[in-house]
Structures are given as structure tokens and as C-alpha cells.
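Module 6 notes. Inverse folding takes a fixed backbone as the condition and produces residue identities as the prediction. Think of it as a translation problem where the source language is geometry and the target language is the twenty amino acids. Below is one complete input and output pair. Work through it position by position during the lab.
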């Protein structure tokens, strides 16, 4: 499988070109959909999953937004290749079959064109998703929605007039939308204000996770903030609400960084340069240690204490 076919290596969301990208790494939009008339994933048999993949592949070939999509059949890929797709946030750990000695199920696939991808036969038949640099919820949603509308004309989605789009997990029913941002909050962590902010998120209908979403731990001061409910509000309302809260959190982080520079400039500068030195000269580092050191370097670049790339 030629992973060089991935558009921009699947990492355009890391190019720091988006708004507030010194603090917010990326914006992600995900829509959950299921094909009407085919058992949902938990009850689907291998033949059902193959049928889903065939229908989605045919629809993609007839669409404008996925006609040139690169297809990755995960059940035919080696573990390191699947791991790479997961690390670049293109597939979930479950779809890639990375849990212990598991393998991807038949029909597990990823379609990618530009910055939008479609996971096939994950928890739901389809998981449409896109990642953008910085805080860019509106543009990311517009791109994913365009694919959703087009596929919806070609593939009948399971939909209920009262409950909206039907999903394997009831918490995803309704819009099927999960909007999230991956945000770097070392200032709030170092000033010990992070717990107050995270508690406030839960009170306004948001939730936080680790670097790789649900089930992952927070490392390197990277938090994934997202909407908690998908039912009872429109997509625009959910995105608008998340955007307002994220902008507030960004402001809190900027204030915390200003406090650090005023009250402990030498300590902050020492922390960032120590992190840089260890990353440059260490011979063995664990994943957690690496992420924590990268957090220090990223903070230093954001505060102009270290030179940025280029």
C-alpha cells in the first residue's frame, strides 16, 4: 500500500496556517452516518460490511468531492501502515485494528481526498471527517457537509423524522456531528488554572479528551475539546457554541502565558530551552516524555523564546 498517495501526507492540519494556530493545532469535524436497510456495525456480518463498502465506493466514484479519492483497505494493510494512519488522525484505533492482536474487519476502509476522509465500517457504516489547521470550524464543516450532501443523494442514510440520523451509539443520534479542536494549554496547566477551565466546559455542554480522542489520556498539555450532545440542536448551533467557548479558552490561555512571562520569566525560558536540549540530544525518550518536551518547545516558540521553524 503506497502511503505516499496521501494528500500532503495526511498532515496539512499541522502546517500552522489556521487562525490561532499557536494555541489550537487543529479543528476536526466528524459526521456519523449509516446506510438504510443494512444492519448496523454491532450486528453486521462480513457480507453486510462488504456491501457497505461497495455502495460507498460506487457513490464516491460518481461524486464530485470523492471521485479522485485514494482508497486504503485496512484489512489488507500491515500494522505499521495502519498505525501511521491512526497517528495522523485519519482512522480510529478500532477501525485500524490496533487493539492488542486484533485485525481490521473485512470491509474496513478509508477514502481520502484533499482534507476530507470517509472511514467505512467503523462504529457506524460511515464516519465522514475533515481536519483543518487552527480554529476553523465553519470551513471544516462546510467541506465535510458538502461530501455528506453528495453521498446522501447517492446512498440512502438511516434517518428518523423525530430522532434525526440514526447511529450505533444513541449519544451520536440526531445530527451525528462531533466537532472538536485540539488545543495546547501549557499556560493554564502551569498556572494551575486548568481544572477550573475543564470543569467549566462540562457545565456548558462540552467535554474534553486526550490527544487521540475518546479513551486516550491527556499528554503534553494537549486537550481535545468537543460537543457532548448531538441531538436537539442544529449543526450550526453546535458549531457556533463550540466556537464561542474555544475562543474563550484561547483567551484564558493567552492570559495565563502573559502571567508566566511577568511572574516567572526565567523559569519559563529555562523550561523551554531544557526541553529543546533534551529533544535534540537525548538518545531514548518515551512517548509521554517526548510529548511533554514538545509541549515545552511549542510553548517557547509561541512566546518567542525559541526560534520557530524556518
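Target side of the pair, the amino acids:
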Amino acid at each position: 500500500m503506497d502511503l505516499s498517495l496521501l494528500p500532503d501526507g495526511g498532515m496539512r492540519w499541522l502546517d500552522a496556517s489556521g487562525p490561532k494556530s499557536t494555541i489550537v493545532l487543529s479543528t476536526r469535524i466528524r459526521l456519523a452516518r449509516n446506510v438504510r436497510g443494512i444492519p448496523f456495525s454491532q450486528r453486521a456480518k462480513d457480507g453486510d460490511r462488504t456491501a457497505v463498502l461497495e455502495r460507498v465506493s460506487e457513490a464516491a466514484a460518481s461524486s464530485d468531492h470523492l471521485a479522485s479519492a485514494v482508497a486504503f483497505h485496512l484489512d489488507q494493510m500491515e500494522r505499521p501502515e495502519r498505525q501511521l494512519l491512526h497517528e495522523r488522525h485519519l482512522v480510529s484505533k478500532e477501525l485500524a485494528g490496533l487493539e492488542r492482536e486484533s485485525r481490521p474487519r473485512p470491509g474496513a476502509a478509508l477514502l481520502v481526498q484533499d482534507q476530507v476522509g470517509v472511514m467505512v465500517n467503523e462504529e457506524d457504516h460511515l464516519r465522514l471527517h475533515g481536519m483543518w489547521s487552527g480554529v476553523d470550524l465553519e470551513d471544516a464543516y462546510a467541506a465535510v457537509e458538502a461530501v455528506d450532501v453528495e453521498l446522501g443523494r447517492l446512498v440512502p442514510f438511516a434517518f428518523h423524522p423525530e430522532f434525526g440520523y440514526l447511529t450505533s451509539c444513541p449519544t451520536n443520534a440526531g445530527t451525528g456531528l462531533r466537532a472538536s479542536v485540539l488545543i495546547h494549554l501549557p499556560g493554564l496547566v502551569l498556572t494551575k488554572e486548568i481544572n477550573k477551565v475543564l470543569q467549566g466546559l462540562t457545565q456548558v455542554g462540552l467535554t474534553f479528551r486526550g490527544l487521540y480522542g475518546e479513551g486516550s489520556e491527556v499528554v503534553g498539555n494537549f486537550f481535545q475539546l468537543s460537543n457532548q450532545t448531538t441531538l436537539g440542536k442544529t449543526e450550526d448551533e453546535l458549531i457556533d457554541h463550540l466556537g464561542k467557548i474555544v475562543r474563550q479558552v484561547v483567551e484564558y490561555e493567552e492570559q495565563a502565558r502573559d502571567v508566566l512571562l511577568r511572574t516567572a520569566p526565567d523559569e519559563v525560558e529555562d523550561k523551554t530551552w531544557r526541553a529543546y536540549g533534551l529533544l535534540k540530544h537525548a538518545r531514548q525518550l518515551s512517548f509521554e516524555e517526548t510529548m511533554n518536551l514538545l509541549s515545552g518547545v511549542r510553548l517557547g516558540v509561541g512566546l518567542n523564546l525559541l526560534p520557530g521553524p524556518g
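Reference fact for the lab report: The longest strand covers residues 24-33.
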